Amino acid sequence: MEEFLPANLRLLCSHYRSVAEVCRKIRINRGQFNKYLCGNSIPTAFNLKRICDFFGVEEFEITLPTAQFISLIGANARRVRPVETATAAQSMLEHLRQKSSPELMAHTGYYYEYYHAMTEPGSILCALVHVREDGSDVVYERNERLQIAGSEGEFERYRYVGIAYYLRDRLFLIDYESLTSNEVSQTILIPSFKSCITRLNGLKIGVSAADHRAPACSRVVWEYLGQEINRIDAYRRVRLYDVDDPAIDEDLRSRLSQTKVVDGLFVIA
C-alpha cells in the first residue's frame, strides 16, 4: 500500500479541481489527506473505505501498481466521478477557504460570547459557541436563549450556524439563524497571539430579533472555555444579564463599554 497508494490517490484527485475540494466532499481533514498523498502516512481502514467509496474503486485496486491502476481507470473512466462545474457562490467560498490561514485551527473549541443584546437594550447576552473543523472547513454553532418576560424559567432559543475564516490577522465569522433562517450576522475578532487564549475582542453586526428588525452592531467578547466542556453546565450561563450583574466581571464590562445606543441603533463610541 505504501508503495503505490500515493501516486494512485494523486491520479484520482486529478479528476477534481483541487485537493481541497476532494477533502471537503469526503469530509476528511486536509492535513491528514496530504500525508496520504505524500506517502508519509497510510489511511486507517475506516478512512480508506471512505476514500474508495467516494472515488468508486475497490480497496485492493487503489493499491495496485500505478501502471496497472492507470490502465484499470482508463478502461473504466466512468467509475471516477466527473469534474463538476462550480457555481459563482461555490467559487467565492473556495477562494476564501484557500486564503484562510491555518492559524485558524488554533482557535477551535468552546467559547462564551458576550455582547450588548440587540433585542434588549441595556442588557448583555451570553451565548455558547463551538468552533470546530469539518473536513477542510472550520465551522461553528452559536446557541442563544432569551428570557420570556413574565414567564419564570422560560426562554426563547436561537441557534446559529456558520463558517469561519482567518484573513490578514483577523477572524471573520459569518452565520445565519438556522431555526427561522431570517437573519445573517457577522463577527470579526482580533485573534490572540499569546500561547494561551483567554478572551478575544471584536465587533458583531446583525439585526434585532424584535419586530422592528433594526440593524445593530456591538462590541463582542469571546471567552475561551476549552476543547471539551460539560455542555449542560456551560449552557446554564447562556441568558441575558443586566450590565451591573455580578456575573459580568469588571474586565468584561470594560471590554464592552465602548458600545452605546443612538437613535435605537448600537454604534461604537
β-strand number: 11
The appropriate CATH architecture of the largest domain is: Beta Barrel
Helical content band: 25-40%
Distance between the termini: 62 Å
- Count of all domains: 2
Note the quaternary state here: single chain
- Strand line-up across the major sheet: 1-2-3-4-5-6-7-8
Pattern of helices and strands: HHHHHHEEEEEEEEHEHEE
CATH fold node name of the largest domain: Lipocalin
Q: Which structural class is indicated by helix and strand composition?
A: alpha+beta
How much of the sequence lies in strands comes to: 25-35%
Number of alpha- plus pi-helical segments:
8
- Please tell me what the overall shape is: elongated
| Sheet with the most strands, sense and barrel status | 8 strands, antiparallel, barrel
Rounded to an integer in angstroms, the radius of gyration calculated over CA atoms is: 23 Å
Poorly predicted residue ranges = 260-269
Q: At the first level of CATH, what is the class of the largest domain? A: Mainly Beta
Mean pLDDT: 86
